[in-house]
Amino acid sequence: MVELVDYGGGNLGSVERALQRLDQPYQLTSQPTGNHPLILPGVGAFGAVMHSLTSTKLDQRLKEIIQQQTPFLGICVGLQILLEESEESPGVPGLALIPGKVVRFQAPKVPQIGWNRIEGGFVYFVNSYHAQLKDPKHLWYSADYHGPFCAALQHRNISAFQFHPEKSGDFGQKLLKDWLQP
């Protein structure tokens, strides 16, 4: 069983379909118990997502559950909110579970929309911002978009993809499956 966190935003439908393709039982919830691994999908702005989480106290609940070593997977903005802050929303604190900040791409075309390579295959991105980690040991996968950037991070029970594995074909499905069945 997996708990798929519904905070009032995100790309729940595509993640649900990906879990169904994997025959992975899941429960859609706005009140995660912490008894099962959590997936927090995200699409949208850092500040809006953090506002939604803090207004329902879900930010504190997520921190508690993650600090209890429950496996956690963040997707897209679900990765970004793990950091301390974001240039996208100055003054809005993140969950601060991973040291670093979210910065805007310095590229001629922003957002990055489309396929990009990480080790092992191609994955689908839609992002204008990316994680700038303070500690390189948290880097799981990197990609290049007018310079290298953090495509995924991992620390203890926390895993997070900046890309959308649920929209990344067979390779994305494999990454989800590997996370679900380590």
Walk me through the structure.
Helix content is 25%, strand content 32%. It is globular and about 40 Å long. By secondary structure, the protein is of the alpha/beta class.
Question: Could you outline the blueprint of secondary structure elements for this entry?
Answer:
Layout lengths: L1 E4 L6 H10 L4 E4 L8 E3 L5 H10 L2 H10 L4 E4 L1 H4 L4 E2 L13 E5 L7 E7 L2 E7 L1 E5 L5 E6 L3 E8 L2 E4 L7 H12 L2
Parallel strand pairs: 1-2, 1-3, 3-4, 4-12, 5-6
Antiparallel strand pairs: 6-9, 7-8, 10-11, 11-12
Which CATH class?
Answer: Alpha Beta
Radius of gyration (Å): 15 Å
Name the CATH architecture.
3-Layer(aba) Sandwich
CATH superfamily annotation = Class I glutamine amidotransferase (GATase) domain
SSE ordering? EHEEHHEHEEEEEEEEH
**Percent in helix:** 25-40%
Give the helix tally: 5
Write out the strand line-up for the largest beta sheet, numbering strands in chain order.
2-1-3-4-12-11-10
Strand content: 25-35%
The total of beta strands comes to 12
Name the structural class: alpha/beta
Nearest-integer average pLDDT: 97
Task: Tell me the quaternary state.
Answer: single chain
Q: Spans of 5+ residues with little confidence (pLDDT < 50)?
A: none
Span of the ends, CA to CA: 14 Å
Number of domains: 1
Shape: globular
